[in-house]
Design goal:
The protein is an alpha/beta fold. The protein is built from eleven helices and seven strands. The protein binds S-adenosylmethionine. S-adenosylmethionine binds next to loops.
Amino acid sequence: MYSENPRRDTLLFMRASLTNLLALFPFYLRLGNRSGRGRANERPEDAAAYFLRCVSDYFAELAVDASFVRGKRVLEYGPGDTLGVALLLYAHGAETVHSVDHFPVHRITSQSAAIYRAILESLDGEARARAESAFVEPGNPQSGFDPAKIEYRVTRHGVSGRRRHYDLVLSRSVLALVDRLDETLADIAAALRPGGVSIHKVDLSSHGLDRDRPFDFLTWPDPLYQLMYSRKGRPNRLRVDRYQALAKAAGLRIRKLAPTGHLSDAEVAFIRPRLDPAFRDVPGELLSWLGFWLVLEPY
Ligand SMILES: C[S@@+](CC[C@H](N)C(=O)[O-])C[C@H]1O[C@@H](n2cnc3c(N)ncnc32)[C@H](O)[C@@H]1O
């Protein structure tokens, strides 16, 4: 296996394998911040701006405006600890927004309530009134979301289990972390109503697991990688060619597939011969993708 520091990487393997065992216990899953939002040192206005950007990115990639969500039933995978996207989509007129996650990371804290208040402040008119009405006590984030409007569930593997229920299914920085991408794609195919659409921003980076070079997390032999990370919501390491094949197998048509960034040719040339064999056959250009937008439709 590729290593620039075998002693460090042996210790890393031992530590990561141990914490992967601890992840069998629910208390471990509550540790750490998986979403990057809701941190005490992030200003609520900055977190609110992140969610506004997420939503405007979805509309831009779908080439629609906010009126697109009016009356739609929406499903979001992996919202993280703050349901900012759900709140904004409900504000823009979604009938319901359901959020589903594998990890129980969402809860109302003073920090997330401040973020919801900053989101409310960014809205006016009908959108503001709708957003305020999403809470049990209208306008009071501390009272929690009215589940008839914005629902949050934790399920095995983070799938919805619903059939022909949603008009819009979306996620950001989630699909590269799900442990069973085939099941998530099958869930999308089953959950969409005819005419529905699904949009995902996929981050193929190592999420902090590279040691010395970009994509060197792809050099761990798969059995070792699974021992270290299988239960912790870490990258599943699948590359874009697998998304194409699994979407097709799930009965989903790819309407759009657009990279969001690339490794340089020199970086790809360095890492390719050192990859775990599972990744050596990833077609030339596709190996360089750092992430992508994916828009799916039922056939
Ligand atoms: C990087 S966070 C992204 C959160 C949010 N979408 C955002 O943009 O800030 C990843 C999310 O995916 C969820 N997730 C991680 N592993 C998962 C899995 N195996 N199945 C389903 N969801 C998972 C995490 O719990 C978390 O909510």
